[in-house]
Amino acid sequence: MCGILGILGPEPVAPDILNGLVALQHRGQDAAGIATFDGRLHLRKRFGLVRDAFSQDDVKALDGNIGIGHVRYPTVGIGDVADAQPLFVNQPHGIAMAHNGNVTNVKQLREHLQDHEHRQINTSCDVEVILNVFAAGLSHHIEKDFVDACEHAAREVYEKVKGSYSVVAAVHRKGLVAMRDPYGIKPIVYGKCGENHVIASESCVLDVIGAKLIRDLNPGEVLVIHPDGRVDSRQVVEPQHHPCIFEYIYFARPDSMIDDISVYKTRLRLGEHLATLVRDRGLKPDVVIPVPDSARPCAQAVAEKLGVKMREGLIKNRYIGRTFIMPRQSERRKSVRHKLTPMRLEIEGKRVLLVDDSIVRGTTMKSLIQMVRDAGAKAVYVASSCPAIRHPCVYGIDMSVREEFVANGRNEAEIEKALGADALVYSSMDGMIDSAKRGNPEIKNFCAACMDGKYPTGDVDEAMIQGIVDERKVAQAALEKA
């Protein structure tokens, strides 16, 4: 899961890209990059947060009225800085590209590109294969009108590239190009600010830079924004829309709209549903405490429906990143106590209901339960706004090793015991899906493969999952040694 941003306008775009990437920082904290064109390519990418990766001199050097940016969240180790996005090829035209997602057939595509398209693949970043498939497609149709050529190139991408991907590319002297995979698993929106055209992972970026949301890209669409501001769109393949449910539960900012669904309102509805399940279980907490930050709206709704006070019983250190997206398991363990501190005043002598958005490995939750007990809680209940995570994600979330999941091989009573909770309540699958769907009834299906094992792309088998797991284990072993 990463964040992408592209801007085209009459003025230099680097300052707005920088501000927009800060708004997308929650989607990736490992590395950041910006590429712009002003007759030649300017590219800067470094490890770390956006605020640390770019100096004032960098922003001045990133001249040009068209550019793209990226924040990286690694699913396989940290990788080399060369793997950070955007990536660039100089033929045809000169193309810089960034994406959010995960290509599941990347190994086969590397071999095809090298053997049949005579293209050298230099990094382990999967956007490089998308970039080269797209560039090869443009080359095959170089004599055509640019929009027609983009349609043909996008068709080659959609036919050859498997998995999930939302893409933005800056093509020298030709404009911005954006694509969304046929299943629309990852979000991508289009907006405008005066004469500036903006492509971004989330609508919250548009608010930050003063742009207006026009619409989400359709799955299987290619959008072309010309240097003079004209916009062309082609629906290249039939959409089979399955947006990722985890965006609404955890990843996206609450002030974002994704596919016309409010992330914040979805989290409130998740809480209302969760409260009924807590009540049905016969639990009577004295206080509801959210696990900051993404679970806060859900916890608020739980408390309101139960008629119980919500209190900020876990105080967050704002200078620690999101533990779920830290690349090392050891970092996740160490950071929990640095990140969250229990407030004894709101906990001691009370039956505490901790509300979290999800429980994946259980590392954070197990530590939190013990911390709350140590702060004097009479009982510690836990409620999760999504069902148990039991299946690997192959679409770009760092949940690929089944053996790491606390729910692996356990029923709910066993998970409850493993975590050390007095009671554990998971959301139901139907209730979770309904909470999102009520925001936009036009969307009939969501990707919840990590919970129900139903992979929408239809090409995921155990061999593919094991390949991803093996690649991740090798990278993690190297990372832990570093």
Q: Give the proportion of residues in helices.
A: 25-40%
Largest sheet: 7 strands, antiparallel
Q: What is the total number of structural domains?
A: 2
Q: Say how many strands there are.
A: 22
Question: What is the percentage of strand-forming residues?
Answer: 15-25%
Radius of gyration: 22 Å
CATH superfamily of the largest domain: Aminohydrolase, N-terminal nucleophile (Ntn) domain
What best-fitting shape do the alpha-carbon axes yield?
globular
Strand order of the largest sheet: 3-2-4-1-10-9-11
Calculate the mean pLDDT score and round it.
93
The first-level CATH class of the largest domain is given as Alpha Beta
Low-pLDDT runs: none
CATH topology of the largest domain: Glutamine Phosphoribosylpyrophosphate, subunit 1, domain 1
- Intertermini distance: 23 Å
SS-based structural class? Answer: alpha+beta
Number of helices: 17
CATH architecture of the largest domain: 4-Layer Sandwich
Topology, please?
Blueprint: E1 3-8, H1 14-23, E2 31-37, E3 41-47, H2 50-53, H3 56-61, E4 66-72, E5 87-89, E6 95-103, H4 106-116, H5 127-140, H6 146-160, E7 163-171, E8 175-180, E9 189-193, E10 196-200, H7 204-208, E11 212-216, E12 221-225, E13 231-235, H8 245-251, E14 257-258, E15 261-262, H9 263-280, E16 287-290, H10 296-306, E17 309-310, E18 314-316, H11 329-339, E19 340-342, H12 344-347, E20 351-356, H13 363-374, E21 379-384, H14 412-419, E22 423-426, H15 429-437, H16 449-452, H17 462-481
Parallel strand pairs: 16-17, 16-20, 20-21, 21-22
Antiparallel strand pairs: 1-4, 1-10, 2-3, 2-4, 5-6, 6-7, 7-8, 8-12, 9-10, 9-11, 12-13, 14-15, 18-19
Helix pairs in contact: 5-6, 9-10, 9-15, 11-13
